[in-house]
Write a structure and sequence with these properties.
heterodimer, A: alpha/beta, TIM Barrel, 10-stranded parallel beta sheet, two-stranded antiparallel sheet, 11 helices, 12 strands, B: about 220 residues, alpha/beta, Rossmann fold, 8-stranded mixed beta sheet, globular
């Protein structure tokens, strides 16, 4: 893979920010902030801006496609995507219309990551039963893939009404909207991504990223078995960049502690400690530090996992808009060029798949 | 006659099922593992992530061993037949998380732990709560030979003492210091919100954390 093809993305889960005085922004202000941040991301050379889908307090990414459409009107080059879309609880036809329209309006810049969701808040909200978790995703991925690649579509299943010889507008060149499958560690999800011939996005939010190397091997072997060409693997991780390592840790820790404490209450895990935080930065999946530190860590991941894409999730809790902006700037202006430089010095070796 | 003492069956080929399969193969077990559906569907996964284990159907897994690990998504176990595991040692490796598994009134309000509910669901099985405390990465990276200084503890709880002793032996072979947590309801301490959940402790420290919370 040449460095030209490599994609550096910025991910947001629509987390409500604050200003430098500590005032928490309104939800509407945060929506507008994301639009400004995407414009900034383009200006500093980041390849894509990707918005999540969450239905919980403190997140305003429930209708990412609307935000992306607004960004499309204010930018020219940056790709506009999701990180991730909860396909299980969306209607694939509706989703197709939204992203085919976004693709048309942005002159070919739409992309998606689709997944089953790790938090399942959208199920009761949209009237779906968690017992159908597997079936919903499998059938909807099948239909959505066909709408993207092979119209007109004749389809029937259990999760929605059948379609007969159906065309849905606006038309796109078949397969032209990149659609990645996001996985969190389920082997079946990895194999499913390969079966449909979609690129694989690994959500790596704890532990050393090299832990996922066996999944990359599984993905590559499954692609071969299904007769697909080699497709890229991406990584999504949390991170924050400041001038120095100390500055980055000091700014990130209070928000990390608050968000992780909430998550630990929900999932029964122990509350986060400063030691655990330090260890995740040093040996785990937090990409926090100076541009040099973060660049070196990204390069390590690229080599360990043969990555073709790296997405940095830049928002967390009420992290202030100033910190978010400076992190985005440093990512685009310093980290990305430095990663490319390091890769050029020693290109990633071809992966063996014995 | 093969040495069936070292046979292990695993129901569920997700993250934790595959991780346990890999550990068991390394420990010398003959492992059969099933996913949701035909064996071929998980054959490649098992070949790559747990080489040496055999992808099988649910019926073959149950046939294969006296000790079965139940590692399906928690919202799924109720769909299995009531007497499927008759007479088997059934290790409940599942955790109930409402945000993931959806609301299950019986599991959410189980004062004696979710394994007691699993035992009610499979009355003819000999249920042991274990192998659920650590995340799959921590499980994979925590395994150590017996006697290693930083070996982690792994607890098991059951009302069936003989079943429990067999699981404690399995834990030791898999690479953890076994900790007898007592009766099945003590499994509360091993699950989400319990003191032993999600943290790797040595056996001594882990033993001290085993308590049944006062729910009065």
């Amino acid at each position: 893979m040449t460095d030209r093809e490599f994609e550096f993305g910025l991910n947001t889960f629509g987390e409500v920010s604050s200003d430098s005085s500590g005032r928490v922004l309104s939800e509407a202000e945060t929506v507008r902030l994301m639009i400004d941040e995407a414009v900034l991301a383009e200006s500093v050379g980041i390849d894509s801006f990707n918005i999540g889908e969450h239905y919980r307090d403190g997140h305003v990414d429930t209708a990412g496609h609307m935000i992306l459409a607004t960004i499309a009107g204010r930018t020219e080059r940056i790709r506009l995507g999701t990180s991730v879309t909860v396909l299980s609880t969306r209607d694939p036809v509706r989703l197709y219309t939204e992203f085919a329209t976004l693709d048309a309006a942005s002159n070919g810049r739409a992309q998606l990551i689709v997944g089953r969701a790790s938090s399942t808040d959208s199920f009761p909200l949209y009237g779906f039963d968690l017992a159908d978790y597997e079936t919903l995703f499998e059938e909807k991925l099948d239909l959505f893939t066909r709408l993207l690649r092979d119209q007109p579509v004749t389809w029937s299943g259990t999760v929605r009404t059948p379609l007969v010889d159906q065309r849905v507008s606006p038309a796109i060149a078949p397969g032209s909207i990149p659609t990645w499958v996001g996985v969190g560690g389920s082997p079946q999800s990895v194999v499913r991504a390969a079966r449909y011939g979609h690129p694989l996005m690994l959500a790596i939010i704890g532990g050393h990223p090299s832990r996922f190397a066996p999944y990359v091997d599984l993905y590559h072997r499954a692609l071969e078995q299904f007769g697909h060409p080699r497709l890229p693997v991406g990584q999504h991780s949390l991170g924050f960049i400041a001038r120095t390592d100390e500055e980055a840790r000091a700014a990130y820790w209070p928000e990390f502690e608050r968000v992780m404490t909430q998550a630990s209450l929900e999932r029964g895990f122990p509350t986060p400690s400063p030691e655990r935080f330090e260890s995740e930065i040093a040996h785990g999946a937090l990409f926090i530090g100076s541009p040099e530190t973060v660049a070196a860590k990204i390069v390590e991941s690229i080599r360990d996992l043969s990555l073709g894409r790296f997405d940095l999730k830049y928002d967390i809790g009420h992290l202030s808009r100033d910190h978010r902006a400076s992190s985005i700037e440093l990512f685009g202006r310093e980290v990305i060029p430095r990663v490319r430089e390091l890769l050029a010095e020693e290109p990633v070796a071809a992966v063996s798949h014995a | 006659m093969p040495n069936t003492e070292l046979n292990l069956g695993i129901v569920g080929a997700g993250k934790i099922g595959v991780t346990i399969a890999r550990a068991a193969v390394a420990a010398g077990y003959d492992v059969a593992i099933s996913g949701s559906g035909p064996a071929e569907r998980i054959a490649l996964t098992i070949d790559v992530l747990a080489p040496g284990a055999r992808a099988a159907t649910l019926a073959e897994v149950v046939q294969h061993s006296d000790i079965i690990v139940l590692a399906v998504p928690t919202h799924r176990f109720r769909s299995l037949p009531r007497d499927l595991f008759a007479g088997k040692v059934l290790i409940d490796a599942m955790n109930y998380w409402e945000p993931i598994d959806g609301t299950d009134d019986e599991l959410a309000s189980a004062p004696d732990g979710t394994s007691v509910v699993v035992q009610r669901c499979f009355p003819s099985a000999r249920v042991v709560k274990s192998l659920n405390q650590l995340g799959y990465h921590e499980f994979e990276e925590g395994r150590r030979p017996r006697g290693t200084a930083d070996r982690l503890g792994m607890a098991a709880a059951s009302d069936d003492r003989e079943a429990l002793s067999r699981v404690l032996e399995l834990i030791d072979r898999l690479g953890f210091d076994p900790v007898d947590a007592g009766a099945l309801e003590a499994g509360v301490a091993l699950g989400p919100d319990g003191p032993a959940f999600g943290v790797g402790y040595g056996a001594e420290e882990l033993s001290k954390l085993m308590w049944v919370p006062d729910v009065a």
